[in-house]
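Contributing new records

If you add data, match the layout below exactly. Sequence lines come first and carry their own label; structure lines follow with theirs. Keep one chain per record. Anything else will be rejected by the validation script.
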Amino acid sequence: MFALIWGAVRTRRAQVLTVAVLTALAAAVVAAGPWIAYASTARAAAAGVAAAPGEQRVVSVREIADTSGDPRRRLDSFAGRVRELLPLPAAGAVTGLVAPLKVNRGQDTPTMSLGYRDGFCAHVRLEGSCPSRNGQVAISHDAAQRLGVGVGNTLSMQAAPTSDPMRFTVVGLYARTDPTEPYWSDPLYEAGDGYDPAFTTIGTFELRQIWEPTVTYDLPVPDALIRGDGGYHLADELREADLRLSTSGMHLVNTTAGLLDTIARDRTQIRIGVLVGMLQILVLALFAIGLAGRYTGRDRRGDAALLKLRGSSRWGMLRLIWGQHLVPLLLGAVAGVPLGFLLARALAGPLGTADRPAAVLLSLAAVGVVLVGGLLVLAVIEALVLRLPVAALLRRVGTGRGDWRAGVLDLLLLAVAVAAVYQARAGAPTSGLARAAPALVALAVALLLARLLGRVADRGGGAAVRTGHLRLGLTAVQVSRQPGTDRVFALVVVAVAVFATALGGWRGEQAARADRSAAELGAARVLTVHAADRTALLAAVRQADPRGDQAMAAVVDAVSGQPVLAVDSSRLAAVTRWRPEYGPAPVLPAAAAGDPGPERLPAITGDRLTVRLRHDGVTAIALTLVLQHEVTGAPITVRFAVPRHGEQAVTAPVAGCGTAPGCRILRWELTLPPQPDGRAAPAVYGTAVTVRGLTQQNPPAEILTAATLGDIARWRPGTSGAALDVAATRGALRLSADKNTVGLPQTGTQAYAVDTALPIPVVLAGPTPVTWQFTDPGLLSLGSSPVPVRVVGTASALPVLGRRGVLVDLEAARRIIGDADPPGVFQVWLAPGAGPAVVEALASAGLTVNEDETVEDRSRRLAQQAPAAAARFALVCGAVALLLAAAAIAVTGAVDRRTRLDQLRALRRQGLAAPVAAVTAWAGTAALIGAGLIGGLAAAALAGPVARVALPGFTDGWDVLPLPPAQGGLALVQAGLAALVVLGLTGWLSVRPLSRRLAARREDPR
């Protein structure tokens, strides 16, 4: 038996090779599927963890504790209990204490928490020193300005209105080095509704008033646990830990939940996408193997008839025929397994050792399904053949196109396609048959077109022959009379449609990633830089790119209640690719340029200032002028001597303004002189100062004249609480605080110089803030007091910020902010053509580049998410489907070659012209490929609107911009060209031997 099988295999090498190739293609895809699923989910989890903000990778445990005057012992005890109950590695844990307090400012008592945190000074930039003794604190620059205190001053705070006040010495002003790092993820150590917290030593909490602080234990979760390496389930572990901690009176805050949900969605979508692709290839491969078995079975009919005549049993004949199929199936499976692993490695990269055994077992099981499925399909085909009598087996002419069973099967497949389309249109595109709706729509179109093609060929072929159109007639007859042609045509249509759909989805997913990356970054390349302040950032960028077409300064504040993106709007159009969703591009630059505000005051470049003033009232006052250097942004305080009553001139030294272009005036400050204990009084009552002029020396110049001092448009008070009275009349500026403001909260002490238009223009994305519905629009994140704004444009989204936020001009914003230090990430946006020289110029201008990211970098990171991984595998499956169709065309040409050659030779002997015979030799295959190609592209184009095919959304929920279409005209053209090359080349190679033999027979003189 083995010798007979081997002899049959050697005799029919082409047919055996075709089945082996079909099996190898299917085995490679299904073997790669599990490997790709495991590797892609691991890479998606790793990319998601790497891209997640710090607060999503930290768990926090809290408890309101009674320290009994020993905060260190209580904190250590708390941390020890947490480590016992929380089953996570304790490396990197940060403990702390925080107590909400009130700042004593008369009747104005803003909230400011007092906190201790491990390693505080290593995570901030300090002006001054780090708190090292009990009672010493460090406060933020913003809090210092709003409270009117500085290094060396005393800060009075109390825990409750009836408790004794506590006095703390301010020894440093801090700014967070990286507000996005996990260290700052705990919201208890943020400003909340008050000022930024003051940080102190742990010994300060020995004070009786703060014996009951909130103790915290913040633990960064290792990336491997969040990713779920080795089957670890962090969510389950944290749920159990929460129960244990709650029983002990502690509260667990799990900020990893959103990240874990994203990872779980990624894992589910990747696995479903891979499974759908594997099933499509499995079905198409079995169909192609069945076609190959049906075509090659014509040569085995004679063997079956001979065995029947010799009295062989049906089981013996089945063993002989199945043995012929088992050899190519085994060869294909053996060849497909390593090909699948190579394919998986190329698509998804290496696989971790923990997941490797499961992936290998599933891959081998999937290959086994292909092997068994192929054998069963071929067995059914052969069993149907063996039922025929000997006379039918020896007949060389087919019995027809099909019977009623084929029609019933077609109707059943059409019903399944209709059900899939209904599910997809009913709003469940990811459930049940809806995922396979595009392929099923293509199948339905293929079956209908196959029936139509057969009828047209039947009717049209005969009519063409009768009317003398032999080329067309013989081609149509060939298509019509060849058994199985309709099934090959259907396979070609489905394969082309699957490939076109996959290519469209892959291109659409790439476009979606590129759109998102550009929207999240804002420009083609973005540098995150370190600069002293906004003024230094803006000056450095303008120095590095004086033409303004390569680089643009930007500051992103995404943590404030109303997120703000500040950009150098004069460079916006040259550097960024503006989208319609961002609103009209010119509106902000036009508004900023159209109303720049009052003419700028002269810059101060001297080393001394003299102010001419008049002091009225009985209360002594301290007069201060705050300046800012126009390049470095450094604040410079000029403290004049305490003026006496009446008219006088007071002179004070100035240090730091001699370097060009000098300093600009920020504000006047009118306070009480410092108290003996170092505290600065926040307000002055019942006194006034009238400024009549300001001049500088070395070089001499007049800075403030009667014209500028008497112009009220150039000066403004604060915008919160009872502001300082500011009056500009008769060429002088009068600053005063009325007695009726005594006791009012937030009594102002400052008069600001106005050198930009107010309200400043903004573009608003998202709903109008609720507070703007009752008061004038203003932003709280541009300094120590609300800044009035006017909305000059609206947008559905803004770059970096997304669907909610405000776009402002950076030049206007930095002039308003002055020497305040609001939150914000400093960036430099680069135009697409910006080269290394621009980056070097930025570094030479004083900027330190901390991070460099391009749209391509961000897109590659997003390529690890489920939509991209599924799209890549679907594209591979589409390409393999195309190869399966090509193999079916090849086997059709190989099997029919001898019969068609005999037919054409017979027609030549009957007088058929040689050119007509040559055209007929290849026209049938060309017609089949052309019709299948057009039908497949039409089916792919039809599947989109019919099944509502759309790109899957990002698994992390990002939906700022609309997704591009899943199928575009360009993708259809590219798919058509690729399919034409693959199928056309296969068809040409399969027909070429027939054409050559026909031509050789024509040239043979015999």
